[in-house]
From TrEMBL, chain A:
<keyword id="KW-0732">Signal</keyword>
<comment type="similarity">
    <text>Belongs to the bacterial solute-binding protein 3 family.</text>
</comment>
<dbReference type="Pfam" id="PF00497">
    <property type="entry name" value="SBP_bac_3"/>
</dbReference>
<dbReference type="InterPro" id="IPR001638">
    <property type="entry name" value="Solute-binding_3/MltF_N"/>
</dbReference>
<feature type="signal peptide">
    <location>
        <begin position="1"/>
        <end position="23"/>
    </location>
</feature>
<dbReference type="GO" id="GO:0006865">
    <property type="term" value="P:amino acid transport"/>
</dbReference>
<keyword id="KW-0813">Transport</keyword>
From TrEMBL, chain B:
<feature type="domain" description="ABC transmembrane type-1">
    <location>
        <begin position="157"/>
        <end position="346"/>
    </location>
</feature>
<feature type="transmembrane region" description="Helical">
    <location>
        <begin position="35"/>
        <end position="57"/>
    </location>
</feature>
<keyword id="KW-1133">Transmembrane helix</keyword>
<feature type="transmembrane region" description="Helical">
    <location>
        <begin position="123"/>
        <end position="147"/>
    </location>
</feature>
<protein>
    <submittedName>
        <fullName>ABC transporter permease subunit</fullName>
    </submittedName>
</protein>
<dbReference type="InterPro" id="IPR010065">
    <property type="entry name" value="AA_ABC_transptr_permease_3TM"/>
</dbReference>
<dbReference type="GO" id="GO:0006865">
    <property type="term" value="P:amino acid transport"/>
</dbReference>
TrEMBL record, chain C:
<keyword id="KW-0029">Amino-acid transport</keyword>
<feature type="transmembrane region" description="Helical">
    <location>
        <begin position="173"/>
        <end position="193"/>
    </location>
</feature>
<protein>
    <submittedName>
        <fullName>ABC transporter permease subunit</fullName>
    </submittedName>
</protein>
<dbReference type="InterPro" id="IPR043429">
    <property type="entry name" value="ArtM/GltK/GlnP/TcyL/YhdX-like"/>
</dbReference>
<dbReference type="GO" id="GO:0006865">
    <property type="term" value="P:amino acid transport"/>
</dbReference>
<feature type="domain" description="ABC transmembrane type-1">
    <location>
        <begin position="78"/>
        <end position="370"/>
    </location>
</feature>
<feature type="transmembrane region" description="Helical">
    <location>
        <begin position="124"/>
        <end position="141"/>
    </location>
</feature>
Length: 339, 364, 382
């Protein structure tokens, strides 16, 4: 009775006691809770944005689903928590979310000083600039003296400052707290250009009244490897996140798709057998179900499918694979062997 | 922002110098007056013409974004199509009857609570023990066969109302305790209360919200997390309690010292004197400014959008930014939001004036 | 157990419990936080203040480059906050005074209009207004290429207002010295003249003399020395106007929003203050033959001021705190800069502590100044 009262009080307070012992590992916590809590952005079409029925869709959201599928065998056991650039790292540090999958660049200082670790790069990106076609500009170097819109506190603002310092040009930086405000200011002509990761620019362009009126300039002024992040000092959880991502890549390499995964269970290829849990007990080593690989592919498909479905050429974003093609197709997507 | 509203809540009385002039001469009595009147009329007509043209004549009443893009007037299809989203946010579509019911229940409870005859300690108790839990269960679900809805999906108008109503209800007891502590003759307790009240009143609400959403999680022991909505709510409660404490302190000072002394000479101890004699008198006096404070807090809840909660202003803004309506219906969206905030704030303001009259006539 | 009923013992007991509780909670939070930070290897301390900021602040009240330190960036934020709050308080007070007097007008139409103005401003959240003003500015005004040329050298566009800027080239310090010296002398003369007028009861030309003293040194300097003022006219650059003084829309929207909200409150405060002055004062002045305007200026307002100051203090404190809403529309005030720093360094606790401390210190300063002024105008019992 007392216990029940206590838990009602806790529920009313919104207090979540994650696990009993304070030293519970993230995996135990997640399993006890029955769902993965994944931090995403709220409204970035292609990466994470709710559809008409309120279901979160996008590349980052599918990364969350693949981890949930690895843990629970069901990609829908995810609670998506919208985070903004202010709250994303703190949400992870404090344990509010289990993994952050939000177009976050892996950098040295974040890795070293924020108390978190990064998984494998899921998306090789770089910062670019977008301008209206009517501006008649074909290179970022011509943008000296222009006003440029961006978000605060991201690596983006620093990169653009560095870029113009390097070419000794002046510019006006217009900073907005919210992506919405940032976008609206650019479309209304408050700024000549908007700068962000190229993937994000594609997403911004996709919601323009007439996307064809805008071009992304050729320069890539920074390296932005986007990776999921998790709390430091929990190797088991880090392994689960990393291998869930690598499995997506390995599956593409082996031609395993959401559609043919059941067939592939019977494959003779020993690599495929190991990945899907038909032979050996790789899943157990991670503390997961042995069928984890099968579950991941069954719920989200392989890396290529995730890419094409959310941001690929058939979508509004219309991104080509580029550096995000498999290593044997000229890109950088490369998974360590799963064995 | 909060203390803005409590200032100068005196009912609009005719200026003491306004002599009783005839209807006509009030407007056109002197040449100066005539000019002022004519200018005012011209201004009113001009604005009315603009508004009518925009709201009705040039407005678009059906169709989609394309039709609105060419028209110069208001875009009503936007409001019609987006209204439900603006009100409920991302709350699951099929379950939206629950926040609606919660809103109606809240309005009903408020309506009852607004009648001075029903005021009692039990009413406050009823709010804390019955009404707020019922609202919570309606919204959150998980029992009685209601599908659980995580607070991350709450949004829109219900969120704005819950934040301000729950905030003020729960801040009330805390604020009263703080006021008593500040008036206490125990130095340590007084210093603590003064410190808390002055610190909270010296910083902007946004900084306390930041503290609650960004900083507080780092202060929690391992494995304990507090829901983000609850953190923002706690921030609002703490913030409100400091302002309530100051209002209640004003009320306490208005109670004549003889009341304390009389109570003590009857052999009552401190808490009995406070509960049975001083507080009832003090609290009645501070209800009108408290309503004013509430208007301020209702408006202040809009600040939670900065820390990433989806309140009514935030749902309106994301509706405006919807790709389909991008740059078309900005004014429409903000006007709808402003109308909603205005209606509720003005109602509360009118209520506050009613209370003042009520007290002037019944308790003077 | 008689000592339980001992008042003195109980007093101590309550205090010890309260202080103990606060200390315990504080200590627990501090211990958990430092434990969490250490365990997760999150950086702590204020070392980051001396690191280079690396970001640009376009609208800076004091000079700032990306190579300056984070500490200086925060100073820029403070300066920006103070700048916009002071201007908003000033414009808001002037406007509010006018609206407050209009509220008391004998013309019912004007009084009603003023009431509508006040109600519209007070019943809609300031944040909503800020969004609205900003959206209107950037949507209704033309892009900078088609900027409206209002006056020669004055351009208005959705990138803001650009006006010619004046630079004093030589003799700037001499000019400044003359201005300050003239102002000080004029002030002293005015005070002395007022005192004499009160003592003798005769009006004198103190105001005129003071004005002369104020302007004389500057004129003299100009005649003797001459100083060259350089005008920097905005010119059309490749994308936007270069040169001149640039007032950005983020600043305008914030200033406008804050000033309007101040004006509505000031109007109500002024009205309440004037109404609180005894009706007999009006009648007495009328009996002395003073006109309505003069009565207001000489008799009623000075008395109303005493009632007005405390709530006015609150309004100024409020506008100062509300300037933190700048973050919503991209004006780099203290909170916005701190926020950028917080995102860059990940040191939330330190950054939030800094900006809360600054707000607290400035709030207390404002309160002290206003209290001093209040004591200055308070009724002096003779």
């Amino acid at each position: 009775m007392k216990q029940a009262l206590l838990s009602i009080c806790a529920a009313a307070l919104g207090l979540t006691m994650a696990g009993q012992a304070s030293a519970a590992s993230t995996l135990e916590t997640v399993k006890a809770r029955g769902k993965l809590v994944c931090g995403v952005s709220l409204a970035t079409p292609g990466f994470a944005a709710p559809d008409d029925k309120g279901r979160m869709q996008g590349f980052d959201a599918d990364i969350c689903r693949s981890i949930a599928a690895a843990v629970f065998g069901d990609g829908d056991k995810v609670e998506f928590v919208p985070t903004n650039i202010n709250t994303r790292f703190q949400a992870l540090q404090s344990g509010e979310i289990d993994v952050l999958s939000r177009q976050t660049t892996h950098t040295f200082s974040r890795d070293a000083s924020l108390g978190l670790d990064f998984g494998p790069t899921v998306f090789y990106d770089g910062q670019g600039l977008m301008v209206p076609k009517s501006l008649g500009v074909s290179s970022a170097k011509e943008l000296t003296e222009a006003a440029i819109c961006t978000l605060p506190g991201t690596t983006t603002a620093q990169n653009i400052s560095d870029f113009f310092r390097a070419i000794n040009g002046k510019f006006e930086l217009v900073v907005f707290e919210s992506p919405d405000e940032n976008r609206a200011a650019f479309y209304s002509g408050r700024c000549e250009a908007i700068t962000s990761d190229r993937s994000d620019l594609a997403s911004i362009r996709a919601v323009a009244n007439n996307p064809a009126d805008y071009i992304v300039l050729p320069e890539t002024i920074s390296k932005e490897p986007l990776a999921p992040a998790f709390r430091q000092n929990d190797s088991q959880w880090g392994d689960i996140v990393s291998w869930s991502v690598w499995l997506l890549m390995a599956a593409e390499e082996k031609g395993i798709t959401q559609a043919n995964v059941d067939e592939k269970l019977k494959s003779e290829d020993p690599d495929v057998q190991r990945m899907l849990g038909a032979t050996e007990e790789l899943g157990k080593m991670l503390g997961l179900d042995n069928k984890w690989g099968y579950n991941v592919i069954k719920s989200v498909g392989n890396y290529g499918e995730v890419f094409e479905r959310n941001v690929g050429e058939g979508t509004k974003l219309g991104l080509t694979r580029g550096p995000n093609a498999l290593w044997n197709a000229g890109g950088m997507i490369y998974s360590p062997p799963i064995r | 922002m909060a203390d803005v509203q409590m200032l100068a809540l005196a009912p609009p009385q005719p200026a003491p110098t306004a002599q009783r002039l005839g209807k006509f001469s009030a407007y056109f009595g002197t040449p100066g007056n005539t000019i002022v009147s004519l200018l005012s009329i011209a201004g009113i007509l001009f604005i009315a013409k603009l508004a009518f043209g925009w709201l009705v004549i040039d407005a678009v009443f059906s169709g989609a974004g394309e039709a609105c893009k060419v028209a110069s007037g208001a875009c009503w299809p936007f409001v019609a199509q987006k209204l439900r989203y603006m009100v409920f946010g991302f709350y699951p579509y099929e379950e939206q009857w629950r926040p609606l019911l919660a809103l109606l229940l809240l309005f009903g409870a408020c309506g009852v609570s607004m009648v001075p005859r029903f005021w009692s300690r039990n009413l406050l108790l009823a709010w804390i023990v019955v009404i707020l839990p019922v609202l919570y269960i309606l919204m959150a679900g998980g029992v009685f066969g209601l599908t659980p809805v995580p607070t991350t999906s709450w949004g829109g108008l219900p969120l704005s109302f819950l934040l301000s109503f729950i905030g003020l209800t729960l801040a009330m007891p805390l604020g009263i305790v703080l006021a008593l502590a500040r008036a206490s003759n125990l130095p340590a307790i007084r210093v603590l209360a003064v410190g808390f009240i002055e610190i909270v009143r010296g910083v902007p609400l946004i900084s306390i919200l930041f503290m609650a959403t960004v900083m507080l999680p780092l202060f929690m022991p391992d494995g304990v997390t507090i829901d983000k909505l609850v953190r923002a709510q706690v921030a609002i409660i703490l913030f409100a309690s400091a302002y309530i404490a100051e209002i209640v302190r004003g009320g306490l000072q208005d109670v004549p010292a003889g009341q304390h002394e009389a109570g003590k000479s009857l052999g009552l101890h401190y808490w009995q004197v406070m509960r049975k004699i001083v507080l009832p008198q003090a609290l009645k006096k501070v209800i009108p400014p408290m309503v004013g404070l509430f208007i301020g807090f209702f408006q202040d809840t809009t600040l939670v959008t900065i820390v990433g909660l989806v309140d009514f202003l935030d749902t309106v803004r994301s509706a405006i930014r919807d790709p389909e309506w991008q740059g078309i219906a900005v004014l429409e969206g903000y006007l709808v939001a402003a109308a909603v905030y205005f209606t509720f704030s003005a109602l509360m303001g009118a209520y506050s004036r009613f209370l003042e009259n009520h007290f002037r006539t019944t308790h003077a | 157990m008689t000592f339980l009923h001992d008042m003195r013992f109980r007093a101590y007991f309550y205090q010890v419990v309260a202080v103990g509780f606060v200390v315990l909670v504080g200590w627990t939070m501090f211990a958990t936080a430092s434990g969490n930070l250490a365990k997760q290897n999150i950086a702590t301390g204020f070392d980051f203040l001396t690191r280079p900021a690396g970001f640009v602040i376009t609208e800076a009240a004091i000079a700032f480059e990306a190579t300056d330190t984070i500490g200086r960036a925060i100073l820029v934020g403070i300066a920006n906050t103070v700048k916009v709050s002071l201007l908003a308080a000033f414009f808001g007070t002037v406007l509010g005074l006018a609206v407050g007097i209009a509220r008391m007008s004998r013309n019912p139409l004007l009084a009603r209009l003023a009431l509508v103005y006040v109600e519209l401003l007070r019943n809609v959240p300031l944040l909503l207004y800020l969004f609205l003003w900003y959206s209107l500015i950037i949507l209704i005004l033309p892009p900078v290429k088609q900027a409206l040329n209002l006056l020669p050298g004055v351009y208005l566009s959705n990138s803001g207002l650009v006006v010619p800027a004046a630079f004093v080239e030589s003799g700037g310090y001499a000019l400044l010295a003359c201005l300050l010296g003239g102002a000080a002398a004029a002030f002293l003369i005015r005070v002395a003249a007022t005192r004499k007028r009160v003592a003798t009861g005769r009006s004198n030309h103190g105001g005129l003399i003071a004005l002369g003293v104020l302007l004389a040194p500057v004129l003299l300097l100009w005649l003797v020395n001459g100083f060259s003022v350089n005008w920097d006219f905005p010119t059309a650059g490749k994308f936007r106007l270069t040169g001149g003084l640039h007032v950005r829309p983020e600043f305008v929207a914030l200033l406008f929003g804050l000033a309007l909200s101040v004006s509505a409150n000031v109007a109500e405060i002024v009205r309440a203050g004037i109404q609180a002055v005894n009706k007999g004062q009006w009648e007495a002045s009328a009996a002395l033959g003073l006109a309505r305007g003069k009565t207001m200026r000489l008799v009623v307002l000075p008395q109303a001021l005493r009632i007005i100051i405390p709530p006015l203090t609150n309004t100024y404190l409020t506008v100062f705190k509300n300037s933190s809403l700048a973050i919503a529309i991209g004006y780099p005030d203290l909170v916005m800069v701190s926020n950028t720093v917080m995102n860059q360094t990940g040191q939330a606790i330190e950054t939030i502590a800094i900006f809360m401390g600054v707000y607290l210190a400035l709030s207390i300063t404002i309160s002290l100044v206003m209290n001093w002024y209040n004591a200055h105008v308070a009724l002096k019992e003779r």
